[in-house]
Amino acid sequence: MREVKNFSDYELIDADNGERLERWGDIVLIRPDPQVIWHQGHKDKRWNEANAVYHRSNSGGGYWEKLTAVPDVWSISYEELVFRLKPMGFKHTGLFPEQAVNWSLARSIIEKQNREISVLNLFGYTGAATIACLKAGARVTHVDASKGMVQWAKENAVASGLSDKPVRWLVDDCMKFVKRELRRGNRYDAIIMDPPSYGRGPGGEVWKLEQQLGELLLETGKLLSDDAVFFFLNSYTGGLSPTILNYMVGQYISKGRGSVTTDEIGLRVTKRDIVLPCGNTTIWKND
Question: Is the overall model pTM greater than 0.90, yes or no?
Answer without folding.
Answer: yes
